[in-house]
Amino acid sequence: MTPAPFRSDALQALIGIGMGHAADALSDLAACPVALGVPAVARGGSGPELLMRLGGQEDVAVVSQGFAGRLHGTAMLVMPCTGAARLVALLLHAEADGLDTETRTVLTEVGNIVLNGLLGMTVNTRGQHTAIHLPAYHEGSVRALANGLPPDHRAGIGVPLDVTIGAEVIAGQMVMVTTPDTLAAILADAGVEV
Fold first, then answer.
1. For the chain, first and last CA: distance in Å?
2. Has residue 192 got a pLDDT over 60?
């Protein structure tokens, strides 16, 4: 069963606060202003459906971070490989040379910062202790990413993310996939009625 889409200003506000903290950390890292915008309200759906909505034939760069405890699942920062390479180039004040080892390392740290902002405001609320795992970097097709999800991760939220550095905006997507029970608990903690 696919959860019904939902609209939540409260959840968007919580995620926005987390992205504000992440933007501050990225600004310090890059020694220039970085803004992280959440331009749309989070939307519900199954994990594979959320990923397949990203569409496109271009391979994507993904930083994933699992979380475990009473609430468990996986959060991902997903963006086209070209956008990911450009993001790292802007952060390092360098030319984009594709996704080499250094670029992947920086992107993994960026994902770690962004996903900690997301998870800190959604799964570590109201005294819930949740262990957040180390980030992992992946590259490949959206279809392969969707097919690689655990079978019990049938629920999730997708959050468009705009990373602004100077006059450039790099578009990405944060996706959290989890079990229906964990998603229901996250939404209840955020005051979302589904």
1. 14
2. yes
**Which 8-state DSSP code applies to residue 73?**
E
C-alpha angle 117-123-124 in degrees, rounded to nearest 5: 80
User: In Å, what is the CA distance from 54 to each residue of 32, 50, 57, 105?
Assistant: 29, 7, 10, 24
| Distance separating alpha carbons of residues 80 and 58, to the nearest angstrom | 6
Distances (CA, A) of 16 to 35, 61, 73, 79, 159: 11, 23, 21, 19, 10
Q: What is the DSSP string of 26-62?
A: HHHHHTS-EEEE--S--EEE-HHHHHHTT--SS-EEE
List of domains in the chain: 9-189 (3.40.1550.10)
Over residues 97-152, the pLDDT tens digits come to: 778 888 999 999 999 999 999 998 888 766 667 899 999 999 998 888 888 888 88
Q: Over the stretch 77-90, which tens digit does the pLDDT of each residue have?
A: 999 999 999 999 99
Task: Name the 3-class secondary structure at 16.
Answer: helix
Which backbone phi and psi does 136 adopt, to 5 degrees?
-130, 145
Please choose, from the candidates 95, 73, 90, 22, the residue with its C-alpha nearest in 3D space to the C-alpha of residue 175. Answer: 73
